[in-house]
Amino acid sequence: xxxxxxxxxxxxxxxxxxxxxxxxxxxxxAKKYSLSYNQLKEYEGLYEYINNxxxxxxxxxIDTTLLCIINESRYPFxxxxxxxxxxxxxxxxxxxxxxxxxxxxxxxxKDTFNLLPQKVTFPxxxxxxxxxxxxxxxxxxxxxQNDNDGLTTGNLxxxxxxxxxxxxxxxxxxxGTYPNVHSVLIxxxxxxxFEEYFYEHNKNKLHELRSATKSFISALTGIAIExxxxxxxxxxxxxxxxxxxxKNNTDAKKQITIENLLTNQSGLDCDTYNPKAVGNESIMAxxxxxxxxxxxxxxxDSAGGIGQYCSSNPIIMGRIIEKAxxxxxxxxxxxxxxxxxxxxxxxWQFKPDPSSGETFCQLNLxxxxxxxxxxLYLNNGLWNGKQVIPKDWVEQSLxxxxxxxxxxxxxxxxxxxxxxxxxxxxGKLAQGNGxxxxxxxxxxxxxxVITAGHYNIQSSSNExxxxxxxxxxxxx
Length: 476
Hints:
Shape: globular
Number of helices: 13
Oligomer: single chain
């Protein structure tokens, strides 16, 4: 997707500060300036960042580019002079040095961020898909191991998948045709039959889901309703926040329901794809109270009207679940959904305030556990004979209720199609910026999981599905 779907991750303060202070450098004026890899390494290190956080600066040996690294996200800088760079939104970042000519920090508008004394290392595997693939690499398929984690594994034989195409896919990833792909997993007929990791990623490493987190909030909503914590998806939203006094509190706003949040039809003037919308996710990220910010927004449409992609909606929904269950959202997930499908290792800070400005309340999971979630929905909420999510809720969630950004939209789930050599396949999709995708193809009894680092650029996740996985079924 073109923008961050869990938005708080962009270099918000860097970009806005420089732009507001008039230090924006026009792309027409800026010309790329050449620095060697060793020169770029002078800027490497751990730096102060906004909100008492840190970021890393690293020089890539692959393409001689300086990268800003925030958590798992990597953002390339354009070199336009010694100590002078453009960040991804084309604003200036200026490094400064001490009397010994050593880099000691950088400036962005009125803000100054110092280089910290802690040493950081950048392991070789973070730059290369496979360390043993630097020369004469030849991929050979291996059946995924059975780790007794709730996933049954199997071989590609008799699955209908094309082993040669999958071999070619891995070969292309390792050779660099598809850079920054972190993992590819395939579940066919209930078994994990393909599992490959690249760079420093492995089956035990947690990966940020970005906006794919929204589909988990949808699942937890269904569970909360089934357990009686929430009476109905038709319940009004504002009564859950009686302790607040909201701006623009019109009769139209009072009509917003839980279902409207799930379908992105709240009517609030908040749309990631519309720069003219009043609600702005990157501003919300540093607001004191995200619920207050979101429900203060004016109404652009009546509730249940046009679909607008707005991360305020699932944030509000997550808080409603917490108020209804009297548990934190991660704790409720651990007790219900995660327990039900055997997810034991996760990270999830759901705090809709500035402390989540860099994580935007996103969930971090293993790729295998993302695959479990997809398999759960493929099986209509049933896991090992137990109904973890009500069947009718799964069906409702995956059905079309609105149109968002030109695509059919369910309850925080997308419907998308992929064309594979002229054959069109429709899938249900949980997705997040950077290429985090859980695809469900019910007609094929197939789940694919791809994680990647294509932040704010076109992801290759769809192409990998369309070119190397789905074509195997074209003859059927």
